[in-house]
Amino acid sequence: MIVEIGHYTLILALALTLVQAVVPIWGAIANDDRMMATASYTSPAVFLLLLFSFAALATAYVTSDFSVQNVWQNSHSKMPLIFKISGTWGNHEGSMMLWVLILGLFAALVAVFGKNLPPSLKANVLGVQGWILAAFLLFIVFTSNPFIRLDPVPFEGRDLNPILQDIGLAIHPPLLYLGYVGYSITFAFAVAALIDGRIDAAWARWVRPWALLAWIFLTAGISVGSYWAYYELGWGGWWFWDPVENSSFMPWLAGTALLHSALVMEKRSALKIWTVLLAILTFSLSLLGTFLVRSGVLTSVHVFASDPERGLYILFILVLFIGGSFALFAKRVGTLQTGGIFAPISREGALVFNNLILSTATATVLVGTLYPLVLEAITGNKISVGAPFFNLTFIPLMIPLFIAVPFGPLLAWKRGDVYAAAQRLFAVFGITLLIMVVAYVFLSEGPVMAPLGIGLAAWLMFGSLAELQLRSGFPKNSFKVAIRRLKGLPRTVWGTAIAHFGLGLTVLGVVGVTAYESENITILKPGETANIAGYTLRMEGMVSRNGPNFQENAAQISVMDGTRVADTLEPSKRIYTARNMPTSEAAIKTIWFSQLYVALGEVKEDGSAVLRIWWKPLITLIWIGSIFMVLGGAYSLSDRRLRVGAPKPSAKRARAANATN
Amino acid sequence: MMFWILAALITLVSLISVGYPLFIKKQEFVDGKSYDKTVYKDQLDEIDREVERGQIKSGEAELARTEIARRLIALGELESESSPKSSNAAIIAAVCALVLTPVLTGVAYVSLGSPGRPDMPLQARMSADPKTQSIEELIARAEARVQNARDDVRGWLVLAPVYMRLGRAADAVDAYQNIIRLSGSKPEYESALGEALTAVADGMITAEARKRFEAAARADPNDAKAEYFLASALGQEGKHAESASAWETLIDKSPQDAPWLESANQELKRMRQLAGLAAPNQTPAADNSAEPGSPTSEDIAAAATMSNADRNTMIANMVAQLAEKLEEDPSNLKGWLRIIRSYAVLGRKEDAATAWTKAGGVFADDPAAVQQLNALAETMNIEVKTQ
Known about the structure:
The structure holds two protein chains of two kinds.
Chain A: H1 2-30, H2 33-62, H3 69-74, H4 81-86, H5 92-113, H6 119-143, H7 167-196, H8 201-232, H9 243-268, H10 272-295, H11 308-332, H12 347-379, H13 387-404, H14 418-424, H15 426-442, H16 450-472, H17 479-488, H18 491-516, E1 518-524, E2 529-532, E3 535-546, E4 550-561, E5 564-569, E6 572-576, E7 581-585, E8 587-591, E9 594-603, E10 609-616, H19 620-637, H20 651-660
Antiparallel strand pairs in A: 1-10, 2-3, 3-4, 4-5, 4-6, 6-7, 8-9, 9-10
Helix pairs in contact in A: 1-2, 1-6, 2-5, 2-6, 5-6, 5-7, 6-7, 6-11, 7-8, 7-10, 8-9, 8-19, 9-10, 9-12, 10-11, 12-13, 15-16, 16-17, 16-18, 18-19
Chain B: H1 2-24, H2 32-53, H3 58-77, H4 88-112, H5 122-126, H6 135-148, H7 153-166, H8 169-183, H9 187-200, H10 207-219, H11 224-236, H12 240-253, H13 261-275, H14 297-305, H15 308-328, H16 333-346, H17 349-362, H18 367-380
């Protein structure tokens, strides 16, 4: 009966969400404290109901209850337990359940921890969250209900899409959704501010940590997705500018801009309206991403999620929320107070520069993603906008941004001195130049631009450490004093440095693999060898194995170190019996930061096999860099102090201050 | 009933979240401005702490304090918020929410859900009373047991013939291989494995299957199944005379009521015909009226009584026969069309493509024939490699 109770609580959650969407906002308008207060109680209740409902669905998956249509369609009794659990969200209905569960969780967190929010703001925020929840719950209950039962009950399930039978599925969607949905909070805050017609000081204090939290999850989610695609799809690529990837990358770009502008707002009460706009934009892009992935407009790995009829409903949600919030913005923006003023050359100015470039980059990706769809809809012509378009537009935008990154933290608030900052970065510039020369001399093979790319990465990495070095006073101060000073630095300073350093690592990884990758496609008979990047690979033979729900044909390949076998790689092809669907499992050997990547192609009857072998120099840095970004963000988030950006006195004032001291 | 009691309890508890703040909880009035004041005061304290730790200079701190003080003053100039009142709206909202929530939930759930229907996890279904279980469930239970004890021959012995009956030939092959692995080679297991292998190959007696039949026949010269398939194998290889004599031997040995006698006689007749031997009581000319490769009414009647494996063997034999006819007389367009279709249906794509190419060569000057061939290739999805 757990399944039916789960279905009941899902519908009850929907009904209660409608209360949450109406009563608190009504209360805020009528200035009724009791009505405003309901939101603080209904949100946790809705979350608990959703949690129960999700747990009921997961139970049906774990116990292979094929009387539930959704379980029957996407599970198999012989799957390992971990995939039975992750299979819960490895399909359209289940992934929407996860989506609303996280939405409910965030609303409940605001309700429980939002004691220091003014009541009307809190009521409006939770009311807006209620609207979003209601829209998606209606969508689930009436178009994508995971609790539909079957009679008669089939005996065996149809299995989970084999590509999704991987640990990546257990991690990637929840992280990504935590990110997407996390931006619903900043969106709700923005809309609440517009409804209220003012931006409180408490507003600013709340938005930055939420923007940061969502950004951390989104960064982790995208990065896990990228690594998953890299090793599971067997094409050896880590980013394809695929529309589905872009649809998670756009909120990331906008969210990164939001993160930085929220920083200015918290510390300096400036850029208020811009932050509101970015908050709306970021969540709108999250919704757009959901629409593109769920609707079947795009076909890709995420095709499990496509269904045109449901797409229409999501389009409706999209138009309602994006259109509604922008209309509200246009109507109410005049009532908002603009914030503090600042000189163009200042920390604020640097962050505005960051925001302008990131917004332009978002627009570029948006155009590259939607243009082919619009063109196909209008003219019927299919064109593909792939890597060349993005290389020509996106990368040139990023270069000035990356050059500017080390300057930002070194500029003072309100009015800064770019020459002073440049002087401080002189040493970093020297190191960068040296590295570029070394790269140019020793790495003769790659493209001419590659040493410049390496230099850019070095500039980012050492430049982000510069602030730490300057703040510690080393080498002017003794080592001991420097360490003590470093320990005393605010966590946000550390977080910034770590995250920017991570960005440098990612850039280095991208440059390394793009410029110096080598590939060898070859046919090997048992005993034959192939060479790549100084490694010798020997084909030993083929082996067949049976997995729990698949049959596997693997090539055994020895990686030779001289005459010694250093390691054995086993790239394989699998047939998942229930769907009779083949998959390819690449074998990867990590050597320092680089990887040897082997994928198995066609196997001939004489035991010879087509092998695609790649040498991917420094590729792991792409993901290690994103781990640094996540850690930097998390460390910065753990800094719960109230932050103020102290402005630098103007020269005249400084003299006056010195005179009085 | 139990379900509705539970549902009602959950609904009641959930509704407390609406009823409690609306009816019971007394709200303290706090001016919205005081929240801003708290934030600004916290900021001033933070500046003091930063100065203490030496993270900002006193000049900068002074400026920051001035800025915050300015915001505090600006706040004081705003009108105080009117204290919130408890309006009648709250009562209306409460009543609506408390009534509509359970009603809407109930209506939506009854129309979408299956109230009170029990869960049906696989484990529970497996251990239910066998009398109430379907064949599929019973088989799955046996399979589950076998999977846990792959060395228990009894499970395999039960499953193997069931698999054959259900047409799950590949599983039958696995089962018989396990039986032979566990209880050693016995003629009946060997020939059953051979039959399963033949069924997997859609009636073609593969080298592997043949080995099994030969092993069975060696161990037990009276194993009728082995002899039957070995005679068929000879026919498939085109050794018609030898096949005919093998069929004769089998027929002589078999008891009068043996179920295979009918199809054995059919095959004997066919092999004799192909080998050019006269049947003892029939003239070869009598059969020439029928088109080669088309089943006679007797064939069809025989096919209906056969097991899957036998039927597939018969089909494979007929196709092989037709192929031979066409080698002798390539001008038979109907024959070509039929054999290409047969190959395609049997999944022998390469044979279909080869036959198509051959036929194309024969009828190159006949546009109508070429059109027919092309149409067939399209409907049957035959991929032809162009050289």
